[in-house]
Amino acid sequence: MPRKVVITGLGATTPIGGDVPTMWRNALKGVSGARTLEDDWVAEFDLPVTFACRASNPAGEVLSRVEAKRMDPSTQFAVVAAREAWRDSGIEEIDHDRLAVAFATGIGGVWTLLDAWDTLREKGPRRVLPMTVPMLMPNGPAAAVSMDLGARAGAHTPVSACASGTEALAMGIDLIRTGKADVVMTGGAEAAIHPMPIAAFGAMQALSRRNDDPEHASRPYDVDRDGFVMGEGAGALLLEAEEHALARGARIYAELAGAGVTADAYHITAPDPEGLGATRALKAALFDARVQPEDVVHINAHATSTPVGDKPEYTALKATFGAHVDNLAVSATKSQTGHLLGASGAVESVMAALAVYERQAPVTINLERQDPEIPLDVVTSPRNLPAGDIVALNNSFGFGGHNAVVVFRSI
Amino acid sequence: MASNEEILAGLAEIVNEETGLAPEAVELDKSFTDDLDIDSISMMTIVVNAEEKFGVRIPDEEVKNLKTVGDAVDYIAKAQA
């Protein structure tokens, strides 16, 4: 039997709450994090999309001024979330040589990169900040978290677009099972609400254009869905080898029982319409976790609210679960948070762990007319999950055909 | 033209902005590395900000000679003259 991996600390900074308790309270209530953007650059560039889900607590205001100055916003979010997860775990004494980091991002330090480019063009090379490279590098969040916690068993950065955050958890499981670490800070961070990514995602017709009604724009599974809504923030989960957690009497949210990671090898952006890659990831995750499909009661779905994306996930769920698909309580929390790209898998994993621990499924908002081709049992009002042994999944899929699924089992 | 006192005050402000050190800790006899714990990357940021604030140019090869706050104040004062 491989070493069991458990989740003992949670952290998050998101558009629906700057910490886990606030986010979770809102996730059960059902709120929208989407707002019209007030930034001057929206009008300056006449952007086709004028709203997004901003983090409710800007990380620059949580960290000290000097700390924040040396970090890209994506790294700031990572550090805020990881510190919360660390405090939440109650961990005190630890062998730092046995503590690793797996912290993902989808895009990396895009603000730093583009600010530096503007500075170079406007003021010349002398004014480009010496901290530019360490701030823009995609491993910046993992490196900063590693320094902050003194994690010396390696600091890794899985990058697989919108599957990145979930892949970080999969990597964390591997690090513990293979004995490379006893404790791993996993998570994902993203800060890409910048005019260039908005223009670029807009150009590929991926974003909702519901500019006159931002709060109703992110509407997974609804017939009127027209694209995703950009979000920003970070999620963090502290993973521990079970024996390590038990030895210190830690509070355990759930077992992180297994993961499945696959690639579609089909198209660079479009998901395989038959959901074959996602199906293989789901089946691999269940096999890895040694759970039967019938054990699963809840899914935090990828469900981004794009016309083409939501359906193949249903196809994959149906192929994996057969008739049991009708018994799954499905939450599409991007309806509330927007799509946090490389952080989404981590934030949604925080929610899935809490769903198992608190026995409550978070709410999907804006589902007014459900797409008849996606007849899932979508959780639209607070719903209790059953007592006894339960299992939940979190799905994440990314441009490039990346599929990642992780399995949460009640303790 | 700024007096040496004004240069010191301006420099202390830049150091505070970059490192969070209290401006009054930035004294003439303090070493940037040994006393103020300023690393080379922060030092370059401070130098570039000082160039802009005081309208001077501090070549990269000069920066290693600016061991103390006083060295920097003297260099800036001479460069302004």
UniProtKB/TrEMBL annotation, chain A:
Q: Which Pfam families match?
A: ketoacyl-synt, Ketoacyl-synt_C
What pathway is it annotated to? Lipid metabolism; fatty acid biosynthesis
| UniProt-listed Enzyme Commission number(s) | 2.3.1.179
Gene Ontology MF: a single term: 3-oxoacyl-[acyl-carrier-protein] synthase activity
Q: Which PROSITE patterns match?
A: KS3_2 (PS52004)
- Does the record's keyword annotation contain tRNA-binding? no
Gene3D superfamilies per the record? 3.40.47.10
Q: Which reaction does it catalyse?
A: a fatty acyl-[ACP] + malonyl-[ACP] + H(+) = a 3-oxoacyl-[ACP] + holo-[ACP] + CO2; (9Z)-hexadecenoyl-[ACP] + malonyl-[ACP] + H(+) = 3-oxo-(11Z)-octadecenoyl-[ACP] + holo-[ACP] + CO2
Which GO cellular component terms, listed alphabetically, does the Swiss-Prot or TrEMBL entry include? cytosol
Query: Which residue numbers delimit the Ketosynthase family 3 (KS3) domain?
Result: 2-410
Active site: residue positions: 162 (for beta-ketoacyl synthase activity)
Name any Gene Ontology BP term.
fatty acid biosynthetic process
Instruction: Provide the alphabetized UniProt keywords.
Output: Acyltransferase, Fatty acid biosynthesis, Fatty acid metabolism, Lipid biosynthesis, Lipid metabolism, Transferase
- The kind of enzyme this is, by top-level EC class, is transferase
Entries under InterPro entries matching the protein: 3-oxoacyl-ACP_synth-2, Beta-ketoacyl_synthase, Ketoacyl_synth_C, Ketoacyl_synth_N, PKS_Beta-ketoAc_synthase_dom, Thiolase-like
Top-level taxon: Bacteria
Record's keyword annotation contains Transferase: yes
Task: Output the NCBIfam families linked to this UniProt entry.
Answer: fabF, PRK07314.1
Annotated function: Involved in the type II fatty acid elongation cycle. Catalyzes the elongation of a wide range of acyl-ACP by the addition of two carbons from malonyl-ACP to an acyl acceptor. Can efficiently catalyze the conversion of palmitoleoyl-ACP (cis-hexadec-9-enoyl-ACP) to cis-vaccenoyl-ACP (cis-octadec-11-enoyl-ACP), an essential step in the thermal regulation of fatty acid composition.
Family from the record: Belongs to the thiolase-like superfamily. Beta-ketoacyl-ACP synthases family.
Name of this chain's protein: 3-oxoacyl-[acyl-carrier-protein] synthase 2
Automatic annotation (TrEMBL), chain B:
Query: Boundaries of each Carrier domain copy?
Result: 2-80
How this protein is processed and modified after translation, per its record? 4'-phosphopantetheine is transferred from CoA to a specific serine of apo-ACP by AcpS. This modification is essential for activity because fatty acids are bound in thioester linkage to the sulfhydryl of the prosthetic group.
Q: Which SUPFAM superfamilies does the UniProt entry name for this protein?
A: ACP-like
Q: What does the UniProt entry say about where the protein is found? A: Cytoplasm
Q: Where is it mainly found?
A: cytoplasm
Q: What positions are modified (O-(pantetheine 4'-phosphoryl)serine)? A: 40
Q: What do the Gene Ontology cellular component annotations say?
A: cytosol; membrane
Biological process, per Gene Ontology: lipid A biosynthetic process
MF-aspect GO terms? acyl binding; acyl carrier activity
Alphabetical keyword list: Cytoplasm, Fatty acid biosynthesis, Fatty acid metabolism, Lipid biosynthesis, Lipid metabolism, Phosphopantetheine, Phosphoprotein
Tell me the InterPro entries matching this sequence: ACP, ACP-like_sf, PP-bd_ACP
Q: In which pathway does it act?
A: Lipid metabolism; fatty acid biosynthesis
Role noted for this protein: Carrier of the growing fatty acid chain in fatty acid biosynthesis.
By its UniProt entry, which NCBIfam families does this protein fall under?
Answer: PRK00982.1-1, PRK00982.1-4
HAMAP family named in the record? Acyl_carrier
The entry assigns this protein to a family as follows: Belongs to the acyl carrier protein (ACP) family.
Full protein name = Acyl carrier protein
Please give the organism: Arthrobacter mobilis
What gene name does this entry carry?
Answer: acpP
